[in-house]
Design a protein that fits this description.
Length: about 220
């Protein structure tokens, strides 16, 4: 999408006389510089800062590598909530532009993978919300094939938000099903947020049990 007309910053609401062309024309340069970008080393298995060679997070044992774009802090936190629960069009479009940029900048790194899979939501949740926010965020990238039907949320579960770590683990256990032949494939799993990691852990475990050779993870944001 090309932005030629002046606009207002989505975050601070100030007038932008010369919109940025990249990575987004929806933010002024000042707000762009203040985003909670992850620019320090994180664990390659779970995304936390402990940076040990032997990650002890049990939920991450099926993950071959972990990357995240932002810390789960405002304003990114606010935009994700607005997009997911209030169908915020501009918030979703803004976040999608950052995801698209990540794929462009890391195209050579992921070129050996077979596909990218958004973490699915149950059909009842999809009916309530009207869309899967993780799939929406991936739609503009053209680096990897987007496969929304390879993995399904087979059991309806309560929202993870507000649950403790143990309750989150029990909530998602056995709730994902692989719906196609994925043996020996190398896949990238994408989610909008990683908090305790239980959902991603269950997804990656399900894929490995189905014969996937490598499961890599990318999240838009990571809670620390």
């Amino acid at each position: 999408m090309i932005y030629l007309l002046p606009s207002w910053c989505f975050h601070c609401r100030r007038f932008i006389s010369k919109p940025l062309r990249f990575p987004t024309a929806l933010l002024c340069s000042s707000c762009l510089d203040q985003l909670p970008v992850i620019d320090t080393p994180i664990c390659n298995k779970c995304g936390l800062k402990h940076r040990t060679d032997d990650c002890r997070e049990s939920w991450a044992k099926s993950i071959d590598s972990f990357q995240s774009i932002f810390y789960y802090r405002d304003p990114v936190h606010h935009w994700i909530v607005n997009h997911k629960y209030s169908s915020g069009l501009f918030a979703g479009r803004l976040l999608r532009e950052f995801v698209t940029r990540w794929f462009k900048e890391h195209a050579s790194r992921v070129s050996g993978l077979d596909a990218v899979l958004p973490v699915p939501i149950h059909s009842l949740r999809l009916r309530q919300r009207g869309f899967n926010q993780t799939a929406f965020l991936l739609k503009a990238q053209r680096v990897l094939p987007l496969k929304t039907g390879w993995l399904k949320k087979s059991r309806f579960t309560p929202q993870q938000a507000g649950l403790t770590g143990k309750a989150r683990r029990e909530n998602v256990q056995g709730s994902f099903a692989v719906k196609t032949v994925v043996e020996s494939k190398k896949l990238l799993v994408f989610d909008d947020v990683c908090t305790t990691g239980q959902t991603l852990g269950e997804v990656c475990s399900s894929l490995k049990k189905a014969g996937v050779a490598e499961v890599h993870v990318l999240t838009l944001s990571r809670s620390m």
